[in-house]
Write a structure and sequence with these properties.
Structural class: alpha/beta
Function: Catalyzes the methylthiolation of N6-(dimethylallyl)adenosine (i(6)A), leading to the formation of 2-methylthio-N6-(dimethylallyl)adenosine (ms(2)i(6)A) at position 37 in tRNAs that read codons beginning with uridine.
CATH topology of the largest domain: pyruvate-formate lyase- activating enzyme
Organism: Thioclava atlantica
Subcellular location: Cytoplasm
Bound molecules: 5'-deoxyadenosine, iron/sulfur cluster
InterPro entries: Elp3/MiaA/NifB-like_rSAM, Methylthiotransferase, Methylthiotransferase_CS, Methylthiotransferase_N, Methylthiotransferase_N_sf, MiaB_methiolase, rSAM, rSAM_horseshoe
GO molecular function: 4 iron, 4 sulfur cluster binding; metal ion binding; tRNA-2-methylthio-N(6)-dimethylallyladenosine(37) synthase activity
Number of domains: 3
């Protein structure tokens, strides 16, 4: 008699790299006989793949752990693991703060997960947060279980920028780029499984410099090689630092049709004083000129970004400068956050804390402007023709949902639509977060 498969529940917090990592962990555990489940009550193991970027994200892990207590009491051999950036940053402190946790695995050690699971239990609570010399990716190739038209592919990890507010250089370590050939192989494997669109991931993805045929490959060179993979229709990459936006990458945006016209390029602030205090190493003007060059190469480029309000020392004038920059760039969409001091980062000890009410008011004002820009970008699509890659059925009979070239959700009713179909669509209506359209031809 064969044993019933064990059930694994994974909860993923934070960025797309965690989504990618969760998939790799699920694959590693499936080799150990674990099947994924959405149902915590049915799980033999629960894994929290955590995020440390802001205080709220990190604290959520502990409240979610508290919520797992009744499940552990009902099923004492339920194993609970904490993975990801909180695991990397806090290590065995997590075991002290929560008696429910059986194992802790940092983001660089996922290939060791099956071994840690086997060791955990009967009082053993293994912790693995080293930055090992071996390449975890060699142990965790992307082998999607089901066909999906879009996939993430990690090409670079870590960050050497040390923005004063950010934990990433500490949790994800120094910048490391994967060899080009391994990425191309992984991409071909994804395409064979039906993937049409690949988003290249890295904390600082445009700083990619990997070993490739003939020497060092830039991200642009990698993109151009990927564009030659038959069956791969769309390429995106995220997330980037303005100072690594090299000429060949800008040129690729003008020359490579498979490279999609949507770019997430965080600036964080529009004030030179604050940019300097943040250690961003560029001015607002340099960022604006850079985007002019990008738009000269690809005029329809949809810009996206990240903003932090309430960084220590931020005055009304600094905030006004950020609003001016946003008006100048005109974002298609953007993310914005209230500054959250992170232990171990230089800004955590900075003077000039901005009172919470002021930071809240600034965040509201900034988000109102970004929402207005997003709404305008959405309604400007009405009447235009756009490529849409369909992903799943919509809520209405006969309706399908996909993503436009500009990463907008588009709803279409039509014959012959299915996941993975790439079609030309005329946009007929817009809402703040989605578009509606009809098939052309
Ligand atoms: N406080 C607030 N926002 C932060 N980010 C990173 N660190 C912090 C912090 N300490 C934001 C930045 C970054 C995005 C991923 O998260 O805007 O680009
Ligand atoms: Fe963090 Fe991005 Fe700055 Fe690196 S470049 S320190 S990941 S905000």
């Amino acid at each position: 008699m064969t044993e019933a498969p064990k059930k694994l529940h994974i909860k993923t917090y934070g960025c797309q790299m965690n989504v990618y990592d969760s998939e790799r962990m699920a694959e590693a555990m499936s080799a150990q006989g674990y099947e994924l489940t959405d149902d915590v009550a049915a799980a033999d193991m629960v894994l929290l793949n955590t995020c440390h970027i802001r205080e709220k994200a990190a604290e959520k892990v502990y409240s979610d752990l508290g919520r797992l207590r009744p499940f552990k009491e009902a099923k004492p051999d339920l194993k609970i693991g904490v993975a990801g950036c909180v695991a990397q940053a806090e290590g065995d402190e997590i075991l002290r703060r929560s008696d429910l946790v059986d194992l802790v695995v940092g983001s660089q050690s996922y290939h060791k997960l099956p071994d840690l699971v086997a060791r955990a239990g009967n009082g053993a609570r293994p912790v693995e947060t080293e930055f090992p010399a071996e390449d975890k990716f060699d142990h965790l190739p992307a082998r999607p279980r089901q066909a999906r038209p879009t996939a993430f592919l990690t090409v670079q990890e870590g960050c050497d920028k040390f923005c004063a507010f950010c934990v990433v250089p500490y949790t994800r370590g120094a910048e490391v780029s994967r060899p080009a050939e391994k990425i191309l192989r992984e991409a071909r494997g994804l395409v064979e499984k039906g993937v049409k669109e690949i988003t290249l991931l890295g904390q600082n993805v445009n700083a990619y410099h990997g070993a490739g045929e003939g020497g060092d490959w830039s991200l642009a060179r990698l993109v151009r090689a990927l564009a030659k993979v038959d069956g791969l229709e769309r390429i995106r990459y995220t997330t980037s630092h303005p100072n690594d936006m090299e000429d060949d990458l800008i040129a690729a945006h003008g020359e490579e049709p498979k490279l999609m016209p949507y770019l997430h390029l965080p600036v964080q602030s529009g004030s030179d004083r604050i940019l300097k205090a943040m250690n961003r190493k560029h001015t607002a003007e340099e960022y604006i000129r850079l985007i002019e060059r990008i738009r000269a190469a690809r005029p329809d480029m949809m810009m996206s970004g990240d903003f932090i309000v309430g960084f220590p020392g931020e005055s009304d004038q600094d905030f006004a400068d950020t609003m001016t920059l946003i008006r100048e760039i005109n974002y298609g969409m953007a993310y914005s956050f209230k500054y959250s001091p992170r232990p171990g980062t230089p800004a955590a000890n900075a003077k000039g804390a901005v009172p919470a009410e002021i930071a809240d008011a600034r965040l509201q004002e900034l988000q109102a402007l970004l929402t207005e820009q997003q709404r305008a970008a959405q309604s400007a699509m009405v009447g235009r023709e756009v490529g849409v890659l369909f992903e799943k059925p919509g809520r209405m009979e006969g309706q399908w949902v996909g993503k436009s070239d500009y990463l907008q959700a588009v709803h279409v009713k039509g014959e012959g639509l299915a996941p993975g179909v790439l079609a030309r669509v005329r946009v007929t209506a817009s809402a703040p977060n989605s578009l509606a359209g009809e098939l052309i031809g």
